[in-house]
Amino acid sequence: MPLEPVMSLPELKAHLSLTVDQDEDDALLQAKLDGAQTLIERMLGFGLVTRFETEDAVPADLREAILQLAAWWYENREAVMEPGAPLPFGVADIINANRDWTF
C-alpha cells in the first residue's frame, strides 16, 4: 500500500528554515520525510491516515514527530549513532503517548 503523506515537503522546509526555492535537496528531504512517517507508523502499529481518516485529522504531536525525525535525519546524515540508539529527544515520547496499548 502506498504511503499516504501526512506532512508536505514545504512544511519540512519551513521546519528546517529552508526557503521554497532551495530545491537542490528536495528528493533527499522527501525521502527523509517518507522514511520518518513510515518508521513512526510501524512503531505505532497503524497507518496515520487510516486511523485518523485524513491527513488533517492526524494529531499535531504526531505531525511534529514526523517533522522532528525527518529534520534530524537530514541534519545528521553521517553515521553518528550506534545501532539501536534512541530516537531524537521527544519523538519516542510522542510515539509512546499515541500507541494503542491494548493487546
Task: From the structure above, extract its key features.
103 residues; mainly alpha
Structure description:
The protein is an all-alpha fold. It has a domain at 25-77 and 85-98. It is built from 5 helices and no strands. It has helices at residues 9-15, 26-44, 48-52, 60-75, 91-98. Helix 2 (26-44) crosses helix 4 (60-75) and helix 4 packs antiparallel against helix 5 (91-98). The chain starts with 8 loop residues before the first helix and ends in a 5-residue tail after the last helix. The mean pLDDT is 90.
List strands and helices in order, with pairings.
Layout: H1 9-15, H2 26-44, H3 48-52, H4 60-75, H5 91-98
Helix pairs in contact: 2-4, 4-5
Question: In a nutshell, what does this entry contain?
Answer:
The chain has five helices and no strands.
Order of helices and strands: HHHHH
Distance between the termini: 24 Å
Overall pLDDT metric:
90
Tally of separate helices: 5
What structural class is derived from the secondary structure elements? mainly alpha
The poorly predicted ranges are none
Strand percentage lies at: under 5%
**Largest sheet geometry:** none
Roughly how many Å is the radius of gyration? Answer: 14 Å
- In one word, what is the shape? globular
Fraction of residues in helices? 40-55%
